[in-house]
Write a structure and sequence with these properties.
By secondary structure, the protein is of the alpha+beta class. The longest helix has 20 residues. The radius of gyration is 22 Å and the shape is globular. The termini are far apart. 26% of the residues are buried. The mean pLDDT is 86.
């Protein structure tokens, strides 16, 4: 009987750190508006199938099956899917880790190539464990995340550092995410203050200092961006666009859109359609 035995050297027993917040599976079914948003944590996702693009700040990057994307905390981004080849991907949110890439970039996109099988296995297993929540599932997910990150480091040679978020900026970013996810509903300053458990006057001050505008101004910006997407990509009536974007009335929508975009919603739709021809 032949035996091959390999001894552990124990030269590096440090853990990578970071905290796994969530893992999700998404598939485009013509049901999500593509809006720039931010997180107070880093996000990693792998495309399982389909085609589309990732917009990161002002630039847009094509993605397809087997592509892997890492985006640092607080970086504006969104995903866009091809209509005929819908995107399907798995996403992981990791807190208290910030990645360093070449050229001082805040993101990286690469094809997983021959490691596609192992990377997808780690992510699918975490997804299954988080869904089923069997005994010690958190330990399994924590260890799988570490294996995943080490595998990625070997593949693209990036580094990382611990990066705890400040409490105030974390609250503001949490509120931004809440607005980005609920802009289509009726939201008031009282509603937002109740969500954050903060005094509404302090909330306005802190949010404005951190984000450069008040919570209500940011809500309006998100709604205008959603309406622009609907005007450009659907045949909804102006009234339907206003309602779907969360505006209380068509007249208020018209007023906000004109002020923000310098033209009417109908003119925006016409100019966008003409540009696409």
């Amino acid at each position: 009987m032949g035996t091959a035995r390999y001894q552990m050297e124990h030269t590096n027993t440090d853990t990578i750190g970071g905290r796994l917040l969530y893992i999700s599976h998404s598939k485009y079914e013509n049901d999500w508006p593509s809006l720039l948003h931010t997180h107070p944590f880093s996000e990693l996702f792998m495309v399982k199938s389909g085609r589309g693009s990732v917009q990161i700040e002002d630039a847009e990057y094509p993605v397809c099956k087997d592509d892997f994307v890492i985006i640092n905390a607080d970086v504006p981004h969104t995903e866009k899917s091809s209509a005929d080849m819908p995107l399907e991907y798995v996403t992981i949110g990791v807190e208290d880790l910030r990645f360093s890439f070449d050229g001082e970039k805040e993101h990286t996109i690469f094809s997983s190539g021959t490691q596609q099988g192992s990377l997808l296995f780690y992510m699918n297993t975490m997804l299954h464990e988080m869904k089923e929540k069997n005994t010690d599932y958190e330990n399994i997910c924590r260890n799988l995340l570490e294996v995943l990150l080490i595998t990625l480091i070997r593949r693209i040679h990036f580094t990382f550092a611990a990066a705890p978020s400040s409490q105030v900026s974390g609250e503001c970013l949490k509120l931004k995410r809440y607005i980005e996810s609920n802009y289509m509903h009726e939201l008031t300053l009282d509603t937002l203050a109740e969500f954050t458990h903060l005094n509404k006057f302090y909330l306005v001050h802190a949010f404005t200092r951190h984000c450069g505008c008040s919570p209500i101004q940011y809500l309006c910006q998100v709604r205008i961006q959603a309406s622009r997407e609907l005007l450009a990509n659907t045949d909804y009536s102006i009234a339907q666009v206003a309602q779907s974007s969360g505006f209380s009335s068509q007249s208020y929508f018209a007023q906000c859109f004109q002020k923000s975009c310098g033209m009417t919603a109908s003119a925006y739709r016409k100019s966008h359609r003409n540009c696409g021809q």
